[in-house]
Amino acid sequence: MQIRHVIFNFIIGAFLTINTGCKGTYNKQLTAASQANTPNCIVGVEKSSSIQESVEKTLPKAQIKTYSDLITAYFALQVGEIDAIAYNEAILTHTFIDSASGLTYIPNDVGLTEEIVIGMNKHSTIPNIKGIINKFIDSLNAAGTLAELNEHWNTSSKTNPLISTKDSESEQVLRIATSADVPPFSFVYDKKIIGIDIDIAKLLGEKLNIKVLIVKKERSKLVAALKNNEADLIISAFTKTECYQNDIDYSKPYHISKTAFAIRPNDADKEISVSKVPKMTYLEPKKPDEIYKLADLSGKTVGVQTGASLDEQVQQLIKLPRLQYFANIPEMTKALEERDLDAIAIDYSVAEAILKHHSEFSILKDRLSKDEFGIAMRKNNPLKTRIDSCIRVLEKKGEIQRIKDKWSKNRSAVRVMQQDWVGSDTLLVGTEALYAPYEFYQWGELSGIDIDIMYTIGKMLNKNIKFADMNFDVLIPSLVNEKTDLCIAAMSITEERSNSIDFSIPYDKNESVIVVHTPQHALEKFGDSTGMLSKLFQNIQSIFN
Fold first, then answer.
1. Which residues contact 274 (CB under 8 A, 6 or more apart)?
2. At what angle do helices 196-208 and 145-155 cross, to 10 degrees?
């Protein structure tokens, strides 16, 4: 990296010697992005990118000049061809990591962000490829894997040890195009292409049990590689743009970051260093409502999961709530994060897992009710008596509590239990892997409390266990229609459900709670920073740190 900067500065010095002054016509030093909205200012952007479209709409008076990559735009800025660069903040700050870059960052006061997605051919021969990719992103989000990947690659430039390097034995190959010039997403280190996007590609390969082939392409040729069937997917800090909407399909975003604006420093700013460059930031949320108790949610919008039993509890305990249903927890959490909801209703253990990655959230002291989770099965299933016996033995030995502690209190990454026995036959078990810490994907493996419990019971029964990941509202129909043998998915035992299926005795009990944005003045109302509420938050955070 340092050698590259030496080369950069040598070339720049030569350019500055040849060129006289700024070719742009803006004669003032920009101090904020909004000041670029003038015909006299030229802003450089990546060609055919979402930032190009956003800058054109947000700064309509500015002159926009497009470049095939960041390095070319950087040279253009240094020699005075343009007045500013607008680029993905993560890539810009990771590419130019020291003061030698000669960049001054100015505030993004126009609120531009960029959503990074996976690109795929609209006419892909892979069945339901978009649905597969979106569910995969949901599972990574639910497990906190995306947050962990970002944390790793923002603090290290080395290969992630938690990502498996084993190749699948499958003969099928998934070809993934990347440009390898957009750190921390994909870049070359020690002659290998690594980064967030490469880790995601490997995890996808593990999920699909398929070999992954990384296809390196120039950034401007990524879309052509997809259209010419040279690749199946683009995972390369790729963004959704209108110009490709007829050819390219896009996944849900797996990363959202702010757009960074940079200019050449004037003489007073020559001492600028990376320590003065802000870390990745996000749009500031609106001012939150003051919600401290269930009564404060009267008339407000509360999110619940489709097929869950919490909607009735919300209606009973909150006056005239506006219910909004979601297919899974990640979508519901994102809606709360973006303030499309005032609160979400979920199980306490799931709320704790969410708070691990959302320090701006808190759990209301008021509880909804206590739930009992059971393993679901068809009516009159002969296995019920044996499964009930297994649960009693595991409870008596403290094994279920040990499994819960493993997934909720362990401060390092843990692996799911592996099947090391050959059973007499196989049980197909339905679950929904979007409900951490009970069931979720971690590093490409189906993991969590319920998964370990089911494997443990399978070993006691001498049964092979095979999981089927499906939407929560399909779990009970899958039993009734004899598509699955059992279901384990933190499913509450209710009278309504018991009319069509049977449950084992409870293997876990949990409280249902409400999660909201922490009110700005919450700590003031409960006393000083050493008060009860502050201690509670610190205790919850210490469990996961």
1. 93, 96, 97, 98, 99
2. 150
Which residue(s) pair with 212 in the sheet?
174
371-426 pLDDT tens trace: 889 999 999 999 999 999 999 999 999 999 999 989 877 656 688 898 999 999 99
Is the separation of the CB atoms in 105 and 90 below 8 Å? no
Between 510 and 463, the higher pLDDT residue: 463
The 181-182 sheet, strands edge to edge: 181-182, 186-189, 192-194
Q: What pLDDT does 98 receive? A: 54
pLDDT tens column, 256-301? 888 999 998 763 343 333 333 333 333 333 344 578 888 888 888 9
Q: What is the pTM of this model?
A: 0.55
Helix and strand numbers, DSSP H then E, in the chain: 18, 27
CA distance 206 to 30: 47
Give the domains, in start order, of the chain with CATH numbers: 2-113+258-272 (3.40.190), 115-255 (3.40.190.10), 294-370+513-544 (3.40.190.10), 375-505 (3.40.190.10)
CB 88 within 8 A of CB 55: no
How far, in Å, CA of 292 to CA of 298, rounded? 12
Residues 6+ apart with CB under 8 A from 405: none
User: Cα–Cα distance between 324 and 305 in angstroms, integer?
Assistant: 8
The beta strands (E) that lie in 314-395 are given as 322-326, 343-347, 361-363, 370-373, 376-377
Give me the DSSP letters along 482-530.
TS-SEE-SS-B--HHHHTTSEEPSPSEEEEEEEEEEPPTTHHHHT-STT
d(CA 480, CA 483): 8
Alpha helices, H only, 19-97: 50-58, 70-78, 89-95
| Pick from 69, 87, 72: nearest CA to 222 | 69
Residue 273 to residue 277: CA distance in whole angstroms: 7
- In the block, which residue shows the tokens 């979920």? 346
Question: What is the reported pLDDT for 26?
Answer: 53
CA distance 289 to 279: 27
Q: Report residue 269 CA to chain centroid gap.
A: 36
- CA dihedral for 271, 273, 279, 280, sign (positive or negative): positive
For 205-225, write each residue's pLDDT tens digit.
988 888 999 999 999 899 999
Q: 53 in helix, strand or coil?
A: helix
Q: Please answer whether residues 176 and 235 qualify as being in contact, where contact means their C-beta atoms are separated by less than 8 angstroms.
A: yes
SS3 251: coil
